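Troubleshooting log. The previous structure file for this entry was overwritten by mistake, so regenerating from the original sequence record. Sequence copied from the archived sheet and checked twice against the printout by T.R.
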Amino acid sequence: MMNEPNKPRVAVHKFSSCDGCQLAFLNLGEDLLTLADRVELVHFAEAGPLDPDTDVDVAFVEGSVSTPEDLERIRHIRAHSRMLIAIGACATAGGIQGLRNGVFDKTWVTQIYSHPEAIASLERSTPIAHHVKVDFELWGCPVSGPQMLAVVNSLLLGVAPRDNADKVCTECKRAGYPCVMVTHGIACMGPVTRAGCGALCPSLGRDCYGCYGPAENANTDALATQFASLGLTPVEVVQRFQSINSQAPVFLAAADSIRVRSDD
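Regenerated output below.
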């Protein structure tokens, strides 16, 4: 990207989500102003510029594909982007709205909304990668500002962004935080969750709840066994894996495996 005669053109798009990952971008503060001198932000509704149809070098996409309109938009964005980066749990794993997958019932819509005919919703909430090519995924709920900045800086230097697939436990060790599972008997998702948050929850003496998605080589079977030894019921163990990143294949398989074992 450094070979471009002009500033790289960047867009930030929102799909079905809470805007938290976009806010992580905005919360960079002075770093965002510095970044704005190095790139051209052509579309970023949260920040002001609106030009969703222009060709860009990099498109950041927050949110899951949850409506028929989302399907059309993501294909359009992919066609007009040299590189597409999915940011956050919704974009990488379907998000919290993915909990409806497999149990969606159209009668719910009629029970909740006075004009259900105005609601256009797909039966499944799916990650961006289910529909178009994604060049890089940045996990987290929400992602952190430093993560976003590191990705952009890597691209500006012409190198591939680093995918931090280490476990939260490694961040606890490096920072010297005591293991909440060992010292307090608290069921913690840190052993199977990817790093990137700075072990925020364990640093405050509480358990990690898996908001950064599955880490590399996550041993979910061993962790489920450990949770059971701490007194969690099979339903409670399933709930640990079926949360923000419930549709991530590793966590989805873990939940299914626990259900099968509990039925035997």
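Residues 168-263 form one domain. Archived copy saved in two places this time.
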